[in-house]
Amino acid sequence: MKIQYQSKSLVILESSLFRTTSTIIIGKSYLLLVDPNWLPIEIEFIANLIEEIGNNKEKHLLFTHSDYDHIIGYGRFKDYHTIASQNFIDNPNKENILSQIRAFDDENYIHRDYDIVYPEIKTGISGHSQALRIGSDEHLFWQAKGHNKDGLITLHKTKGVLAVGDYLSNIEFPYIYDSLKNYRDTLNNLEQIINTENIKFLISGHGDFTSDKEEMTLRIKESRDYISELENAVKNDTAFDLEGLFKRYQFPGIMKKFHEGNLALVTKELNS
User: How far is CA 241 from CA 169, 217, 232, in A?
Assistant: First the structure.
């Protein structure tokens, strides 16, 4: 598994699939693992790395949202103290998500040495924002709807590490599974967080982390530009500039399907 970044207090890992990230934040008395994924050999890499650096620390496991690629490694870390949004806990589509994991493993002949189960969450984050102390460190959480209904933004305030789930990726345009309005609201909230907090690392669920404030601002602008063009195409019944889109983003074959899904969702939302 690729290591994007490693220090005594932070490790950012990258899967071979969809460049999906997993993050390990290392405190004095605890360790916080975020979204362990994808393949069994990658999950074991994460587990072995934690064993090396854990030093008998308390183990916590955070899920940024419930998409199957982000919960797929849960079974290997079931004994960790789990954290997610209350919407994650109340998700009515749990069995469908597990079916996606089983289908992925079946299609790729994958066997896992742990059960495929929906994460049991011990600490649910509710309300627009909430603070939580883990060890001696303060963590701030915000709800993040738009991509899906149960997203959670997490800031390790002491270290300035902002984990945003599937927002502000440098390799993906916005994938909208919840609503256009909620996505915009989350972008507005992210902008405020980035402008008011001392963010040293912005970690998206897919692609490269960044420590550059200008890059963070650019990612917000690119997300807004995409959803505005999407909305205008639907409202005015005009063609979306796919050629321009795929000058910016690679993998047009698969990404065109995500874009078509966005068009269908926004068309339904605006016409309802």
Answer: 20, 23, 11
